[in-house]
Amino acid sequence: MKTHYLILIGFLIVSSCKQKETKIETNYYDLEETGVKSGGIKMIPIHGGKYKVWTKRVGNNPKIKLLLLHGGPAMTHEYFESFDSFLPKEGIEYYYYDQLGSYYSDQPTDISLWKVARFVEEVEEVRKALGLDSTNFFLLGSSWGGILAMEYALKYQANLKGLIISNMMASAPEYGKYAEDVLAKQMDPKVLAEVRALEAKKDFENPRYMELLMPNFYNQHLCRIPLESWPDPIYRAFKHANNAVYTLMQGPSEFGISGRLEKWDVKAELPKIKVPTLTIGATFDTMDPEHMKWMATQVQHGTFLLCPNGSHLSMWDDQEHYFPGLIQFIRSVDK
């Protein structure tokens, strides 16, 4: 009996160890990296391996993985850095990502690359490389990133769990009309006349052009924090912008679109988007908040969030509304 008892005790100890070994516990701060630790940074080959794009993972949550698409085109992930102050404590895993042409990724000079359809395929390559799927993949696009997010959803929404369109209308022509009919009329007529004169001469490199736009347009509709107090991540994003790509696609100014995106419009296609979708608008945005509200009624499962004190970068100038609304949406979809 004693021998049998010892054998039984041994078996139970071994079984207990095996159970402990197979129990999976998720630690938010465990990036599960192998080899040399890189702080979650991963360079992802795209376009047949010809180029690489930069990504950085923050956190670990198998159910919620948020990929951030920055604006521009060809700005950087840096202006998303305010997310560090809000998402980790909520246990939300998220990915910074510089699109091809942006500062931390490869910056080829082949102008045939700067097309919406190719960017969509790039996002799909990034998704696969990061292991994101319909059980966990949330996609947030801000400004130009919102265009990219809508286009991605229209082609690949089967891969999505949730979609967030931050501060971007579904029509470039309507954005241009809003800039002309509403935003321009809010400017001092003398300032507007000087801006128009510089634009007519295509004198966009003239320092006076930005001298006029910074206080009279950007500080009113891009980020309403006093210019002397603009957060460093915003300045870095501007400093690192690839102006060649930006100008080709967007045009030389945020004051309306005049590049390859000038005629972009997916209003009629919004009803095809089935995944839960949040649109975020702001009262002082470059984008019409009423249009953003309307977009939420056009997708099949839409929600609208208004940032009443915010502008285009409302993740900075209206954080008290932006982040609670974003987090609530993600949590509601996850449940």
Tags for this entry?
single chain, 335 residues, alpha/beta, Rossmann fold, eight-stranded mixed β-sheet, 8 strands, globular
Structure characterization notes:
It is a single chain. With 335 residues, the chain is α/β, with parallel strands linked by helices. It has one domain: 3-Layer(aba) Sandwich (Rossmann fold), CATH 3.40.50.1820. Helix content is 40%, strand content 14%. It has eleven helices and eight strands. The N terminus is likely disordered.
Q: Name the CATH architecture.
A: 3-Layer(aba) Sandwich
**Can you say what the CATH homologous superfamily is?**
Alpha/Beta hydrolase fold, catalytic domain
What's the level 1 CATH class?
Alpha Beta
Give the integer mean of the pLDDT values: 92
Strand order of the largest sheet: 1-2-4-3-5-6-7-8
Into which percentage range does the β-strand content fall? 5-15%
By CATH, the topology is Rossmann fold
